[in-house]
């Protein structure tokens, strides 16, 4: 017989009450730990078997038993006992029964106490993690003010209501510079019950942060008069927010901007000067797409392929670069906001295309009609100029894939270019650089 001290029982009852852990749950875990400790001890004495432990909940005494199955002919001495030997211990023993044979635990006192303490620490840790999960799982999407506690290589550790939260470096804005003790607004994005490090994950790049900031700054959004229909971000750089009013007398864009821009400027400051386009939502997708290209003004929007959600937007010549945006950012965000693929064309390009089409229809432009890709390839070569590897044959392939002008290549990615026969990665990147140089970037 061995005893786990009464101090342990007092600790179990006190901590169980504080952390919401069931006492019996702790005791059962201690019994499992004691059985493993006993198994390790007896194995070191070349005695193997199945061991169980039982603890007296009042006195702290515990006993260890080796379980052996009663058999007619014994083959495994450590796990079996003969029927004859079993009946010497228990006259009622029968073949197939399991006997619990008491073991000497006089040498297990210190080992048992250490195992019990480890179990208690583990249970407290598990209970704390469960408490954090339960407390924060319903707060996902909530914006909170967190305090900067310390800095790690790949993350910033914050504190929210005495709980550590992790802001990974890639979830912080490019202009974020924090000091220890600084308070910063973040959005709770996930809670992990099994994470080894901080369970609560937060972000400053998530669109939900921008939405919540608008809810806090704009009373009309908070009371439901103005509704945010969608929000997309390239965090720290630019965002687009689509808003709609349920009251015809309330201008949703004006409500979000505020008097002299006071409301939106407060949000911009919080997001380190991230540019925010507030767009009027429209149930008509064509009008919504035109609005989404703000600040560019669309002359007309035409559905090119309804099944694949592709549209063509025509703008004034001087509005083309505004509509596309730096490195295609404006049209890219507009496409994400609306869910449509947007091809922006200038009025001059569209007029030229219509003239070619009309000439072909009248038979006046037979050569152009017979070789449309060649004309497009020639246009591309004229616009880009001399570029090593960009041969007429490659330009022909590009034109055939729909990239017959510098503008059509403005928002393309390297992955898309590599789908074109004859282009390797080096030429794709050089071609992209040449296109941006063509537009003066």
Explain this structure to me?
Helix content is 42%, strand content 24%. The protein is α+β, with helices and mostly antiparallel strands. It has four domains: 2-134, 2-Layer Sandwich (N Utilization Substance Protein A, Chain:P, domain 4), CATH 3.30.1480.10; 140-205, Nucleic acid-binding proteins (OB fold (Dihydrolipoamide Acetyltransferase, E2P), Beta Barrel), CATH 2.40.50.140; 216-281, K homology (KH) domain (GMP Synthetase, Chain A, domain 3, 2-Layer Sandwich); 371-438, DNA polymerase, domain 1 (Orthogonal Bundle). Strands 1, 2, 3, 4 and 5 form a five-stranded mixed sheet that branches. A five-stranded mixed beta barrel has the order 6-7-8-10-9. Strands 11-12-13 form a three-stranded mixed sheet, with helices on both faces. The longest helix is centred in the first third of the chain and has 28 residues, at 109-136. The chain is elongated.
The description of the largest β-sheet is: 5 strands, mixed
Quaternary state of the chains = single chain
CATH superfamily of the largest domain: NusA, N-terminal domain
| CATH fold topology of the largest domain | N Utilization Substance Protein A, Chain:P, domain 4
Mean pLDDT across every amino acid position = 84
- How far do the termini sit from each other? 83 Å
Structural class: alpha+beta
Q: How many structural domains does the protein architecture include?
A: 4
Strand content: 15-25%
CATH class placement of the largest domain: Alpha Beta
Count the E strands: 16
- What's the total helix number? 17
Work out the radius of gyration: 36 Å
Gross morphology is: elongated
């Amino acid at each position: 017989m061995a005893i786990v001290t009464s101090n342990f029982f007092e600790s179990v009852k006190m901590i169980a009450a504080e952390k919401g852990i069931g006492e019996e749950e702790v005791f059962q875990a201690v019994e499992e730990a004691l059985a493993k400790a006993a198994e390790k001890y007896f194995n070191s004495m070349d005695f193997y078997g199945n061991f169980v432990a039982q603890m007296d909940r009042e006195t702290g005494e515990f006993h260890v038993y080796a379980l052996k199955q009663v058999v007619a002919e014994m083959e495994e001495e450590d796990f079996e006992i003969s029927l004859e030997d079993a009946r010497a211990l228990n006259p009622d023993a029968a073949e197939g029964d399991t006997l619990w044979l008491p073991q000497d635990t006089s040498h297990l006192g210190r080992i048992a106490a250490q195992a019990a303490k480890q179990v208690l620490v583990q249970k407290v840790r598990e209970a704390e993690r469960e408490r954090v999960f339960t407390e924060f799982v319903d707060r996902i999407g909530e914006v909170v003010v967190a305090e900067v506690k310390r800095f790690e290589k790949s993350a910033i550790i914050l504190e929210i209501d005495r709980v550590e939260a992790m802001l990974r470096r890639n979830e912080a804005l490019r202009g974020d510079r924090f000091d220890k003790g600084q308070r910063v607004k973040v959005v709770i994005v996930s809670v992990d019950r099994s994470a080894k490090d901080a369970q609560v994950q937060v972000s400053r790049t998530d669109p939900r942060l921008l939405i919540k900031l608008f809810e806090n700054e704009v009373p009309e959004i908070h009371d439901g008069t103005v509704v945010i229909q969608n929000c997309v971000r390239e965090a720290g750089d630019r965002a687009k927010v689509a808003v709609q009013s349920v009251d015809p007398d309330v201008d949703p864009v004006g409500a979000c901007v505020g008097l002299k821009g006071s409301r939106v400027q407060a949000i911009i400051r919080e997001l380190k000067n991230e540019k925010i386009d507030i767009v009027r939502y429209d149930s008509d997708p064509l009008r919504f797409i035109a609005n989404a290209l703000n600040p560019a003004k669309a002359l007309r929007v035409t559905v090119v392929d309804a099944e694949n959600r592709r549209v063509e937007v025509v703008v004034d010549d001087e509005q083309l670069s505004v509509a596309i945006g730096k490195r295609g950012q404006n049209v890219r965000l507009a496409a994400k906001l609306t869910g449509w693929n947007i091809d922006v064309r200038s009025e001059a390009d569209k007029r030229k295309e219509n003239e070619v089409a009309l000439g072909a229809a009248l038979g006046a432009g037979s050569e152009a009609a017979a070789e449309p890709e060649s004309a497009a390839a020639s246009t591309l070569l004229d616009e880009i100029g001399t570029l090593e590897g960009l041969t007429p044959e490659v330009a022909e392939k590009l034109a055939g894939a729909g990239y017959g002008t510098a503008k059509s290549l403005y928002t393309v990615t390297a992955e898309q270019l590599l789908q074109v026969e004859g282009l390797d990665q080096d030429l794709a990147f050089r071609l992209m650089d040449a296109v941006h140089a063509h537009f003066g970037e």
